[in-house]
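Researcher: I'd like a structural prediction for the single chain below. Treat it as a standalone chain; there are no partners to consider.
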Amino acid sequence: MAQIIDGRSLSEKIQLDLKNKVDMLKVKPGLAVVLVGEDSASKIYVKHKERACEKIGYYSKKIELSGTVSKEELFKVIDDLNEDDRINGILVQFPLPGELKLLENEVIRRILPEKDVDGFHPLNVGKLFARKNSIDDDTLVSCTPRGILRLLKEYKIEIEGKKAVIVGRSNFVGKPVAQLLLLENATVTICHTRTQDLEKESQQADILVVAVGKAEMIKASFVKEGAVVIDAGINRTENGLVGDVDFESVKEKVKAITPVPGGVGPMTIAMLMENVFKAYLYKS
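Model: Treating it as a single chain, here is the predicted structure.
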């Protein structure tokens, strides 16, 4: 039976550590979240972030906009937050609705790099890919990849010299987590929709990270005995939330695995909170 990599308990520990630091500050770090439209999943994610801010003691500001908001109005909100000294981190909740989705890259670039706590701005992405080692510096790194690396290190899973296979090549998860593992001296392969034999490639992994958004697509036949599996997917089905990995079958075969929910998801929130604190320290 696999060891369950518990992201929820580690997230709680990280947030408690942050609370202890924030309690000693006169001026609290601030996070602004911009929510556009009525997407139910986005509202849930924003609520989790608000609760984390409240628990730690951050100043929190939520701005809700109509799904028909104009580009100019949205950018005016971002510009005002860029100039607001109380706000250290700005997060625009994706995906944006309708035709606004086409503006997501522009939205990312509109946020000041030093307030980009999602780690999506090209300057922050460039800093990550320009690193020569894994030592943390002033880079604001995408939260989910940071959370994955933190889980691996917390559970003392050896990375150096291991074969890591990433299933998914998104700019938000797949590519940055591949870079983080590369910086830890893993040998990294990225798989995607055009990969010729995904099952064969996945079977090579000592560490398998899956982030594709397709419910339970990775079956037991895709993993080798004793592998470590990190499931960064979250899919809403008739049977509730499931990941991109068929957890029940895969857990019987691997050394360690993250559950969904309770694995990578809580760590994404914890790393966001750490990024806000980091942005606060940069400014101080």
